[in-house]
Fold this protein.
Amino acid sequence: MHRMLTMKLLKNRLLLHALTILILLFLIVAPPFLGKDIINILMKILVFGLAAMALDLVFGYSGLWSFGHAGIFGVGAYTVCLLMWHFSVYNFWLLAIAGIVAAVVAAAIFASLGLRMRGLYFMLTTFALGELVAAMARTFRKITNGTDGIWPMRYPDLGFGITLSHTGLFYFVLVVVIISGIILFRITKSPFGYSLQSLAENEVRARTLGYNTQLRRFIAFLISGFFVGLAGVLYVYTNGGINPPDAGMATSGLLMILVILGGVGTIWGGLVGSAVMNLLNYFISIIIPARWPIFLGVVFILTIFFARGGLYPRIANACKKAIGYGNTEG
Amino acid sequence: MIFLFSVLCGLSYGMVLFLLAAGLSIVFGLMGIVNLAHGLMYMSAAYIGIIVAKLTGSFWVGLLAALVSSGLLGLIIERGLLRTLYREQLSQILVCFGLVYIITNLHLWAYGPYPKAAPVLPSVLSGSLTLGQFEFMHYRLAVIVVGALLCGFLFWAQERTKLGSIVRAGMDDPETVRALGINLMTINIGAFVFGSVLAGLAGYIGIPVIGGVVPTTGESVLFLGIAIIIIGGVGSVQGTLAGALLIGVGSSLSQSFYSPLAKFFIPLIMLLILIFRPGGLVYRK
Amino acid sequence: MEILKVDNLIQAYGGLEVLRNCSFSIEAGEKVALIGPNGAGKTTLLNVLNGIIAPKSGRIYFTGREITRLPTQARTNLGMARSFQITSLFSPLDILINVLLALHGTQRSSYDMLRPIDASQTILNEAQELLESVGLWQKRKMNCMKISHGEQRSLELCLALASKPKILLLDEPSAGLSKEESEKLGKTMRGSAHKNVALLLVAHDIDLVFQVAERILVMNQGTIFAEGTAEEIQKNKEVAEIYFGPGVKFA
């Protein structure tokens, strides 16, 4: 019974899987031949894609609209930068662990304050806390270098004398992001993951079935914080450094847009949204340098009319239609 | 003297903030959405007002232009885009962001990145009050008075008029209000447009108070609006006033006396409120 | 053995008292029905028993433990299950997932994060059993909102039974069902599969009540004012009065 279902599913998504494999092949084979610029864009897509995928876990599955996720991202990144700058710690693994732990702690604070009230207040609370992180980064000059930011401009030191090159960093980020995406996706298909969807959909029913809904929301936020923190850690290397706006309202908003654009509640939509946004950004700003936000804004609005559930589901559906399966169970 | 001066400056700033945030608060209370495009009404009205005032040489004509333009913009946004996506909050967020990107960049294109200041002030208000070594503009005093009057009017409307009770009921229990046969849709649209007009008013009269407008003003002002809602509480005139004055006077005082705190002041207050009084200073229900 | 004991529950909304000194008890495996006119407080009572609302005063004991302030999910894990008057499913999910969620809810596997929800063969078999008993196994991949109302009610019942409860609180389970469906439901409830499950059935459907209940509690204005077997209740004049007014026989 199972095998038959899997076969049908595979046929359904054949085109989609084929496309994915092609893209992956490209990403594996091409980089040594691509310019530094393009690799930087690809890395930006991956890092922000990871942050967006992490956000989707709480935004799309648990019904928690976090408008301050960039704050957690910033905590991860700033922890790495502070350790480098003030304590000359350069081992990647130590820095990553520190950054991720700090991000998870920040996520715990965000969640415990935010989960005290219902609904849209969560959005306002996380917004305030995200801005608080950015404000702290701006204000405490001695620690964070204020509005100038901290720019270590380093490549990851993996220990044993191995330091990654530019291309090496790309492959490293690629592997980390893909594995993270797979983990996040698996979580959503697990009992825990489905329980998140259930509590977002019908809280009373979920509790009546035995689920501790507040605890689950909290845990989901911590998991999200883990992966966002990881993204922040990687960002320090791919971007060269961090500054306060990266932890602020505009970036939080951007992350939300990436999730909505790509498809809420799909995990991989975050990566798709990031790819579309960054690629459009890059190409449009080559053609009309100062006016690209207008185009981006128009794209957002058009997405609502042509890809209501997000770009990833739209693309997946188009692939299904192309080989004759169409909109079966959607 | 410096204390008095700072407080007065803070009050005038706070009044501008109050007018800005009032619309945001009402819309959030009634429709459950944070109108992310709210800052745009403020900003575009300021710019249009400046241009018109420059052209006609009259402060008042500029004011009229500002109010009309922000009201129209609010109407267009509400009817054209938000209404067709009623209940689809995610799409609304996407639309608002799209609008912010587009309109902000259009402003940048049209007006350039440098701050624009008010070209002309009403002649009757051109003097200033001397407080020790500081000059407090009569204009700012007028802003305080106008703000207070409007606040009083809104409070009266909220508490004493039928429309006010309908709006308050619409925030607490929309189902029942609809069941009573009241067209909540019209109320919502009206509130949205009214809020936009207030924001436009704030934008225009606020230019001399805040010191000029830039294309990123929309974004910074949205932040202030949300901060006021968090601190003051949603949906009540008193709450919005409390939040606005706290931010206004607080920022002003910390600027004068302990400037490192100034940048940090608003997020700090937000944090304190979230810890000790989530729901805001004036929390109903 | 007493499994549920309710002692002097009082619940009020503002000044309006909804439950007044409500007391009763249920034995293990006993099938009890709760009837009464609209507004008597039946659903409120279920909500209080279930932990969705806290009572103003009074106590609830379940399997010997006091559970008055215990959160809903803890009560479910002790063996209390509930179905709702208005069908309460997880609308974006398909039927199988709904049932799997119900099955995992009281198990340690509910915190599993890396295995798919349908990975456990044991749980899958239980799901199959539950769904086959109401004829929904073939439709298990359909979205749960796309089936008929009667099928949704059956699914609702499946979700409640999934946790293998010691007591089942049912709120109008036959609402909207046809006569045959209702009878079938009654047979299932009385069947051997659920012999050891205590039942508190809130219903307006008198046929179902008589079919299933060993004992009937009659509630009016927030308090239990009569109880007895089906015959006793039928002969009770006071009960007839609260339903039909004075001078009418209840038959």
In short: The CA atoms of residues 32 and 171 of chain B lie 9 Å apart.
